[in-house]
Amino acid sequence: MTVGELMEKLSAQGLAPVILFFGVLNTMAFIPGSSAVTGFPVILMGLAVMFGYKGIWLPVRIRSYMFDREKLHVGVERAVPWLKKIEKYVHPRLWPVYGFIPDFLYGLAVVLLAIIITLPIPGANLVPAIGIILLSIGFASRDGAWVLAGLFITMMALGIVIGAAAAAVHGAGSLFRGG
Question: Which of 50-59, 111-120, 127-136, 164-173 is the least confident region?
Fold first, then answer.
């Protein structure tokens, strides 16, 4: 199955289910570097949501990227029981505004988290992927409690990346200063 085929099947209800799927995909162990392939479409989808698009165009190279059907099936089989458990706790609440503002903020948070996912930092996918999952569940169901949890995880992911970058800059500075 290609990324394009998968997106066509999932996007019937808008981009949030597709983004949710890619968030789940990013929590699973992959070949090093594959997070760029699975993170880049999420960046584009987040931008599309930010600016009010209901669908998304992807470059042929990304649309034609193949998933092993069997591995995809195994991943979906692992995710479905969790999603069924979660479904009991999801319902519309704490959603004060409809329209452009929540769409824009959801898209912005997804873009920031997807950028973190695409960074070449081993093992750094999990926290931002969980943030994408929580935000997407909340956004798709208009459940503000899930969105707030997703925003909390988004702040954690940003803090981790900023902290890691500061440590790297400090370490590099120490190296060049000789101490």
Answer: 50-59
> Has residue 161 been placed in a domain?
no
pLDDT tens-place string over residues 39-61: 888 999 999 999 988 777 777 88
What CA–CA distance (Å, rounded) separates 47 from 38?
A: 15
CA distance 38 to 43: 9
pTM to 2 decimal places? 0.80
Are residues 124 and 79 in contact, defined by beta-carbon separation less than 8 angstroms? Answer: no
Domain span at residue 104 reads 3-154
- List alpha helices for the chain, DSSP H: 3-10, 15-25, 34-50, 60-63, 69-87, 100-118, 126-141, 144-177
For 30, other C-beta atoms within 10 Å of its C-beta total: 14
Q: How many domains does the chain have?
A: 1
- Alpha-carbon distance of 80 to 86, in angstroms, equals 10
Please check whether residue 177 lies inside any domain of the structure: no
* Residue at 24 is within a domain: yes
Instruction: Answer whether residue 80 is part of any domain.
Output: yes
Which band of pLDDT confidence, cut at 50, 70 and 90, is reported for residue 112? very high
